[in-house]
Amino acid sequence: MNKIENKLLDSIIKRINIIYIVIAILVSFALRYLFFPFISSDMEGFLIGWYGQLQQLGGMKGLAVQVGNYSVAYQTFIAIMTELSIPAVIGYKVFSCIFDYVLALGVYFILKKDTNPAVSKNALIGFTLIIFSPLVFINSAMWGQCDSIYTSFLVLSYLMYTKKKYPLCFVFFGLSFAFKLQAIFALPFLLFAYLYDRKFTVLNFLLTPITMIAVCIPAYINGRGFKGFISPYYYQTESCDKVFFNYPSFWSLFPFSPDRAIDYISAIKYPAIILTFVILLTLMFVIIKKNISMETNSLNILMLFIYTCVEFLPGMHERYAFPIEILSIILAIKNKKTIPLAIALNVLSFITYGVSLYGGTVNYIPLGIANFIVYLMYIVFLINPGFTLKQSASKQA
User: Fold this and answer.
1) Where are the alpha helices (DSSP H) in 335-363?
2) pLDDT tier, 118 (very low <50, low <70, confident <90, very high otherwise)
């Protein structure tokens, strides 16, 4: 082997991480591209129609009124697509796919933050698992949904929290909230961190609404009023007419009749919200009494608080668990004891994704039981870090 070959190979080895990431991105995007022709019922029945309405209203001028039930920030993106004459399906899917990679980079830097060089190599594993996760590319490239967008900002918000860059933490949280209401499920974590960790001022919370307002400036310029800014969130909270929507939550354990969905939700809605609030307070109480460190357990706590909201609140869709599944992957890499739980979570959602995209029926009671057990196990791992699933199995035997 001559000197030129040696230098070339040395150069490749020195940059092997970058080369790996570039190849992984190219292959994963090719995989996503294969799903672009698929048109989901949501795409056909809602997203394409919203694009057409904004196009008829004059693109950016259409921001003066509410089109669809997504946030003003997302509606602004649709308006920009119409102004640039980007085809609706391609625009929706490419935009979401871009944030798949933002999400993966957020996960990469969270894992790279570990000081142990041997552990920090797990950052590449995390990056790879995210961009090749079936739930991630099905959600964006096949379904054309926006969950990777708001979850990316949630992950970046958490990254800034770990780096103690608290103003940026709340700015990213504001961006997440600006794109989707379900970002609010992370708010209990920030409130608890303020109370328990005491590392930042309450004034940081003001950065979230300021960010949300700033993102909506194009809509204000085109005549959108404040009521129009909050109307999508109000509509989403009021449009809940079922106890659960294809997500195996705690409420899927009860054999509700679909014919009486409205009756059930009217009776359960507010008690379910109160129950969720009580469970969150109980978890906070246990964390404080057991003196569980936020420094080493913040990821577990964030995931568990979001999980509690999705598990016990009424009207939950399968996609609302998307941030939990992403956080479960990060946690599984940091704590290998939780790998079986992460696999179970992602498999459960994979089943419900299939039902939503292809139709058919599924018995939600066993799925709900499995999901509830996984939820309880994450609580056990938080309270007792030394616990192992093998230990539990041996005791039962």
Assistant:
1) 339-358
2) low
